[in-house]
């Protein structure tokens, strides 16, 4: 009986930590600055997934807490329901604070990877993934990007092994309006 209990605990720990990894062959950015990354980001593009399905005008706000954790506030507009929805979570660095690899939780004790794969020098554009290549986001400090940035993102994503066939370009008409 003790062996079965230990196996269950090991499997549970594996499942909880498996979602906080980095996709094979990819690396998070180094020389990451949470202070510079903090603030509001507009979701420009994403791979389709159930927890954001139907949302437009999506933003993510990151704020450093006193204990070094990160307050995460995601919000988006559901066109079908004609309502705003938001989710608040917390994130922690997986390794060191200069590596763009965090684990984020909206439902504790479950965490998911937040891996910053690419970040421009001015912290205006960020490419983020999860623990595998099923998750991909292009974030920007502005709700509209140039055609050149769009092409740069697509080329980067394809070269990194992402399938862009289900990529959604997110409408950003209401994002700057208050809730």
TrEMBL record:
GO BP field: response to stress
Subcellular location: Cell outer membrane
Bilayer disposition of the protein: Lipid-anchor
Keyword hit for Aminoacyl-tRNA synthetase: no
Alphabetized SUPFAM superfamilies for the sequence: Lipocalins
Signal peptide: 1-21
CDD domains: lipocalin_Blc-like
GO molecular function: lipid binding
Keywords: Cell outer membrane, Lipid-binding, Lipoprotein, Membrane, Palmitate, Signal
Any one GO cellular component localisation term in the record: cell outer membrane
InterPro entries named among the record's database cross-references: Calycin, Lipocalin_ApoD, Lipocalin_bac, Lipocalin_Blc-like_dom, Lipocalin_CS, Lipocln_cytosolic_FA-bd_dom
Location of the Lipocalin/cytosolic fatty-acid binding domain: 34-172
PROSITE patterns given in the database record: LIPOCALIN
Principal subcellular localisation of the protein: membrane
Subunit structure: Homodimer.
Family: Belongs to the calycin superfamily. Lipocalin family.
Name of the featured protein: Outer membrane lipoprotein Blc
Source organism of the structure: Umboniibacter marinipuniceus
């Amino acid at each position: 009986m003790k062996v079965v209990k230990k196996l269950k605990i090991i499997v549970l720990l594996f499942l909880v930590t498996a979602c906080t990894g980095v996709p094979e062959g990819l690396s998070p950015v180094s020389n990451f600055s949470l202070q510079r990354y903090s603030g509001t980001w507009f979701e420009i593009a994403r791979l389709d997934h159930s927890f954001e399905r139907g949302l437009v005008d999506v933003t993510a706000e990151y704020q450093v807490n006193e204990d070094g954790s990160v307050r995460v506030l995601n919000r988006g507009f559901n066109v079908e329901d004609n309502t705003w929805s938001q989710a608040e979570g917390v994130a922690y660095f997986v390794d060191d604070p200069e590596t763009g690899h965090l684990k984020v939780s909206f439902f504790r004790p479950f965490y998911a990877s937040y891996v910053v794969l690419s970040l421009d020098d001015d912290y205006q554009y960020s490419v983020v993934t999860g623990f595998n290549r099923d998750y991909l986001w292009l974030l920007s400090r502005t709700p509209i990007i140039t055609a050149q940035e769009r092409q740069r993102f697509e080329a980067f994503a394809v070269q990194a092994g992402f399938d862009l066939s289900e990529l959604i370009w997110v409408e950003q008409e209401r994002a700057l309006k208050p809730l």
